[in-house]
Design goal:
- The chain has 382 residues and is of the alpha/beta class.
- 40% of the residues lie in helices and 16% in strands.
- It folds into 2 domains: 2-177 and 366-380, Glycogen Phosphorylase B (Rossmann fold, 3-Layer(aba) Sandwich); 188-362, 3-Layer(aba) Sandwich (Rossmann fold), CATH 3.40.50.
- The termini are close together.
Length: 382
């Protein structure tokens, strides 16, 4: 069996949720069966040079192309050409770990992973350019045509059934994984360097993720203010660290921070290198992720794996992910969010319970399990 896999999402070099999913899944899946040959479709006029161990496996071939993706996307969408399976010189199945549109021959079977349908439910959270990209990708058409769909949560499966009227039997829920805690011990000098690099204070509340409207960061800033005005927890005791790269429509987030009376205690770190994330998580007193909508939601589980109590939303897939191991709140109710923050910061007994439950919960999500189940779906498509 020869499987083609679309890895165009790695071309930018970013490490958001989709890229994390693709990299971690392939690192575990490609080595499971050496009798399966994989051809990786990697295209872009300008693209990041890839350096992963799984690219060196004898059953893996990196097929690189240099077509501008904007032109290729347009051609796939409106001309149904070129055929990705022809570019890869013959495959039995084409797997898309994200909704990047492609065109394949009729005999080539297809599997696509849907991470969420936030662009359908909340188009106002996206820029005009991003909404146009989603239109160009034609996700509903992809879902209808795919031989099999992988959904990263039951919430995403439910959205596919309700919004796109997809037969639920065609959709397999496979949860993503969480990286286990590394046994590497950071020397004091490295910790100090990372603290300086991101201007980390001694005591802080952490958000880590892309800066975009869907993440409800403005609400988090307002709830942080309430820790002072309503719950008498001075902002000078706990600073708010907002970590992550800028996504889209982020200007209002910075305006909210700059106009806040607590602005001197709000720190934006910018993009965080993957190797530095463990330090940011492990030194935080509390992790808050009040997103309006998530297909799966890596950061709360990553924080749990590193022994940090978590507050997150009771919306979309997040209750599936965190179970009873986090404090869940209505992301639209900022008083409730502020009260939860005050409670977790001041109740040591609650903190210990959340830390213990969180660590056990995060261990349930394994990339190895995700890879085995995903390969099972790919093998089953006839």
């Amino acid at each position: 069996m020869t499987i083609g896999i679309d890895i165009r999402m790695l071309a930018r070099g970013a490490r958001t949720g989709v890229e994390e999913y693709t990299i971690n899944l392939l690192s575990k899946m490609l080595c499971l069966d050496k009798n399966i040959k994989y051809k990786l479709f990697y295209n872009g006029y300008r693209k990041t040079k890839l350096d992963y161990d799984w690219l060196k496996l004898p059953n893996v071939e990196l097929a690189q192309f240099r077509m501008p993706n904007r032109i290729l996307d347009f051609s796939f969408r409106f001309l149904n050409y070129p055929k990705a399976d022809k570019l890869l010189k013959g495959i039995d199945l084409f797997f898309s770990p994200h909704i990047f549109l492609s065109s394949v021959s009729k005999k080539c079977r297809t599997v696509v992973t849907f991470h969420d349908l936030s662009f359908e439910k909340y188009p106002e959270f996206y820029s005009i350019g991003k909404n146009y990209w989603h239109f160009l990708m034609s996700p509903k058409k992809q879902a209808k045509k795919a031989d099999q769909i992988i959904a990263v949560s039951q919430s995403t499966k439910d959205d596919l059934v309700n919004l796109y009227k997809i037969n639920p039997d065609k959709i397999k829920v496979i949860y993503s994984g969480v990286d286990p805690v590394s046994s590497i011990q950071y020397p004091v000098s490295s910790i100090s360097e990372i603290k300086r690099k991101y201007s980390l204070p001694e005591r802080y509340i952490l958000y880590l993720g892309t800066l975009e409207p869907r993440k409800n960061i403005i609400g988090l800033i307002e709830a942080f203010e309430k820790l002072n005005t309503k719950y008498q927890i001075p902002n000078t005791k706990y600073k708010l660290v907002i970590a992550g790269a800028r996504g889209w429509l982020y200007k209002d987030i910075f305006d909210a921070a700059n106009n806040s009376f607590a602005k001197d205690n709000i720190i934006f770190t910018g993009f965080v290198d993957d190797c530095d994330k463990p330090i940011l998580y492990s030194r935080a007193k509390l992790f808050v992720y009040p997103s309006f909508y998530e297909g799966f939601g890596f950061p709360p589980l990553e924080a749990m794996m590193r022994g940090i109590p978590v507050i997150t939303s009771n919306f979309s897939s997040l209750p599936e992910a965190v179970g009873d191991a986090a404090v869940m709140v209505d992301p639209y109710n900022l008083d409730e969010l502020a009260e939860a923050m005050e409670m977790v910061l001041t109740d040591n007994g609650l903190r210990e319970i959340l830390i213990k439950k969180g660590f056990e919960r995060a261990k349930k999500f394994s990339w190895q399990k995700c890879a085995k189940e995903t390969l099972g779906v790919l093998r089953s498509v006839e």
